[in-house]
Design a protein that fits this description.
Layout (H helix, E strand, L loop, with lengths): L3 H73 L8 E7 L2 E5 L4 H10 L2 H4 L5 H7 L6 E2 L5 E2 L3 E5 L4 E5 L5 E4 L4 E10 L2 E16 L10 E4 L3 E5 L3 E6 L5 E7 L2 E5 L24 E4 L3 E5 L9 E2 L5 H15 L3
Parallel strand pairs: 9-10
Antiparallel strand pairs: 1-4, 1-6, 2-3, 2-5, 5-8, 6-7, 7-9, 8-9, 9-12, 10-11, 11-14, 12-13, 13-16, 14-15, 16-17
Length: 323
């Protein structure tokens, strides 16, 4: 028989063991909860960090693609100053060559357009005396001319050039024209053509800025136009005749051999001696420019002969092109 004190000690030990186990279990549970919370927090922080890194990577990729697209678009698009002029009509024969913009090169190029040059029968000494000479290449319909190139028509040739703004420029037989500038952008235009010899007809599209936007230069004068049709005759002696068929043209001193000043004009009028620097020509009037660059007042004209045939042919083509 177990004595009472012994039984109490056993009960006490049992209770102590139970409390120890309870405390151990509590500590184990606490540690397990702490580890679980730590893992949860670590997972949360890791997820947040991954999300931030992913957003950063996406942003960098979008920026890279945007910059790549902008660079390809900027490089691929044609610059305004590099735009070309298309040959949309060619009858007979025509050539083109790259020629410098100075007046001496222009004079030599005009000289090279003589009939004897057509067969290429100049002697070596003759070519050496003439100095620099252009390298002519055959022109064909559908080809394009760029800045700095000269086109010439042969005795049997005439052609039409189309600008990206819709304007048309036509060359009669035995004509030489240099493309000096072709810039056509949204709501703006800057076109400059130099006629060195022969006949040129221009039908200029409407709505592209002031009279500085489209210029045709002879040796000693500049014709600035907007939304009009006119013809220019550049003679071998360096004189010129500008005839206006619709709209108005401001003719001023200048030309491709010297600086010029051109402005848009409100309509036809005549100028006195003090205003001789610029003459305004309205419809069916002409302005004559001497070989020395003297500009005569605008006068009425009447086409006949070759000039009449040239005007009628161009006016018919203007109607066909809906200009």
């Amino acid at each position: 028989m177990i004595s009472q004190p012994t039984r109490l000690r056993g009960v006490s030990r049992a209770h102590g063991l139970g409390r120890g186990q309870s405390r151990g279990q509590s500590r184990a549970q606490s540690r397990a909860q702490s580890r679980a919370q730590s893992r949860a927090q670590s997972h949360g922080h890791g997820s947040a960090g991954w999300a931030v890194r992913r957003r950063s990577a996406i942003l960098v990729a979008v920026l890279f693609l945007s910059l790549s697209f902008e660079m390809r678009w900027a490089v691929g698009r044609p610059k305004a100053a590099d735009q070309s002029v298309e040959v949309t009509f060619l009858e007979g024969h025509a050539d083109f060559a790259a020629v410098p913009a100075d007046s001496e090169s222009a004079a030599r190029t005009r000289a090279s357009a003589a009939a004897a040059d057509e067969a290429g029968k100049h002697s070596a000494k003759d070519k050496k005396d003439r100095g620099w000479r252009p390298k002519w290449q055959a022109l064909a319909r559908g080809m394009t001319l760029t800045r700095g190139q000269v086109v010439r028509t042969r005795a049997d040739g005439r052609l039409e050039l189309k600008l990206s703004d819709g304007s048309r420029v036509r060359l009669a037989p035995e004509t030489m024209v240099r493309v000096d500038r072709v810039r056509v952008q949204k709501n703006s235009r800057a076109v400059r053509l130099d006629i060195w010899l022969g006949r040129l007809w221009a039908k200029v599209a409407h709505g592209w800025g002031d009279g500085r936007s489209f210029e045709v230069r002879t040796t000693n004068a500049v014709a600035g136009v907007r939304g009009t049709s006119f013809a220019v005759l550049a003679k071998q002696d360096l004189s010129a005749v500008i005839r206006v068929y619709a709209g108005s043209v401001g003719v001023s001193k200048g030309g491709y051999s010297r600086p010029a000043s051109v402005r848009e004009v409100p309509g036809p009028r005549r100028v006195d001696q003090q205003q001789w620097e610029e003459v305004i020509a309205g419809a069916m009037t002409e302005v004559r420019v001497s070989a020395l660059g003297d500009i005569q007042p605008a006068t009425d004209f009447l086409d006949e002969g070759e000039a009449l045939e040239w005007a009628m042919w161009n006016q018919a083509r203007d109607k066909t092109a809906d200009l």
